[in-house]
Amino acid sequence: MSGRERLATLGLLVAAAAQYAWNAWSLPPLAGYDAAGHLGYALAIAREARIPAPLSGWSTFHPPAWYLAAAVLWRAGEPLGPEALRLALRALGGGLWLAAGLRLHGALRRQLGARAATAWVALALWCWVPVNQLAAAMLGNESFAAAWAALAVPALLRLEADPRDRRAALAAGLAAGLACATKFTGAWVAVACAVPFARHELGRDGRRALALCALSGLAVAGPVYARNLALTGELFPMTRERLAIMRAAEASLTLGPRRLSDYVRVPLDCGLRPSVHQVRGRPGAWSQRNASMQSVPCLAYAGLWYDPFGQRVPIARHRDGEWAGPLLLALGLAPTAITAAGLFAAAGALAGRRRPAETPLVAMSALALASFAGFTWFAPSLTAAKASYLLPLAAPAAVFFARAADALPPRLRAAGLGGSAAAALAAALVFTNQLGFAPDREHARVEALVWERIGTRLPGSRIAEAVRILAGARPHPSDPPPRAAPRSGG
Q1: Interval 88-134: pLDDT, tens
Q2: What are 13-71's pLDDT values in tens digits?
Q3: H or E element: which one contains 249?
Q4: 3-class DSSP state of 347
Q5: Are 287 and 406 in contact (CB under 8 A)?
Q6: 3 state SS for 134-162
Q7: 363 — phi, psi (to 5°)?
Q8: Which of 19, 224, 230, 418 has its CA 20 to 30 A from that of 338?
Q9: How far does Cα 207 stand from its chain's mean position?
């Protein structure tokens, strides 16, 4: 790597780190899907020095890795005040996300031989595709889990080239184990870890590497799932199926049962009104529901390239005439098409009985997309089609993007990389807090009150205490009754 390339890569990472830090510092305390539920879980560990039972609270069904780390930071950072504590908690996901991006950039250059410009644009997309950067600023486990999944990818590429590589086997197993110990979607990368070893002639060294990979992953994640089985009888327990308050939150975003047409149709409104709250000719309102978002590909794509659930864009700005959403969805077409071309090319090579370097990532992507489709079918709420559920595919997407971009003819490659870089930089500008949009402070205040009341209905969850510490939510007798619903994520 030349000095000029190192400087360009460093400049990109510094810019991304500065933007992440600003957003982490300046966003409202509860920005993010189910932030209060995640915070209550972490605070319970910090206060009680034990992991709550999986079905005892709002977010307690999640594996505990992020919450254990957050609890350590909570105990260390609480004396410094809520702003410093909030910054530290957000740095868990955002910091690991940037570190994983740097590692992935190195793998693109050294292991796949990607061009310098291609790897730089792939890193820019990693940092600033809206679903990535929004998740990195949220208080929760999504970006933390996806970053661990990404850190397994370089090792998987090495294993596909040589399944006898024990160092790669250990690295892949540990990263996949940490992904599984953070979120259930880690199972996708765990399955991908088996793919490099699925060969007719593995040999003794290959079998030893396979055992090392499996045992290292089980050592990290095994106790989590053994505990789930012992306490709930399930590997993947879900509180959404048991708590009436969670079912009510999901029901508020359910338009009706799923139909097969929801997986193939893409209404024009998808690009013009990329919001679950935006309806033709009317200003945005929490009570409105955009029927076009019943289309799963439509809502997923809007979630990749904008903010359809209003996590960062105030609902009053989910209206006709707002340029940011349609612009980002239009700019996102180029990198999305290039990435899809890379996935189809790798899948096509497999169909032709060749094993491209991306073979484990093709398997991971197929499993993730099938799981996503199945989940949205059985859970028809719009929240089930959140693009952030697909966040572990960000690293495979970077690999597919790089492969396809470098295979393009020079002029077309230059246009594709330029358009993709423009999409990443535009998203960075739109979602830099107070540059593109200023947060709705009044809604943030009401949402904190709603979460505090939810906490009182879940004794022992520590949700109300966490909200008071980080958001200072204390209802005054003169306050109107809260009317906002929690922005449920899962």
Answers
A1: 999 999 999 999 999 999 999 999 999 999 999 999 999 999 999 99
A2: 999 999 999 999 999 989 889 999 999 999 999 999 999 999 988 999 999 999 999 99
A3: helix 244-251
A4: helix
A5: no
A6: HHHCCCCCHHHHHHHHHHHHHHHHHHHHC
A7: -65, -45
A8: 19
A9: 33
Distances (CA, A) of 276 to 292, 316, 450: 8, 13, 21
8 A C-beta contact, residue 282 and residue 288: yes
| Alpha helices in 306-436, H assignment, sequence order | 324-331, 333-351, 359-378, 394-407, 410-430
pLDDT mean over 243-258: 81
Task: Give the pLDDT of residue 481.
Answer: 45
What angle, 0 to 180 degrees and rounded to 10, lies between the N-to-C axes of helices 410-430 and 3-26?
A: 30
Answer with the residue of higher pLDDT: 352 or 396. 396
Contact 263, 373 (CB under 8 A): yes
Q: Are 310 and 318 in contact (CB under 8 A)?
A: yes
- Quick one: 50 exposed, middle or buried, by C-beta within 10 A (0-12, 13-18, 19+)? exposed
Note every long-range contact of 73-81, with CB atoms under 8 Å and residues 24 or more positions apart, other chains counting: 74/42, 74/43, 74/46, 75/46, 78/46, 78/469
| pLDDT at residue number 430 | 97
Of the pLDDT bands very low, low, confident and very high (cuts 50, 70, 90), residue 458 is confident
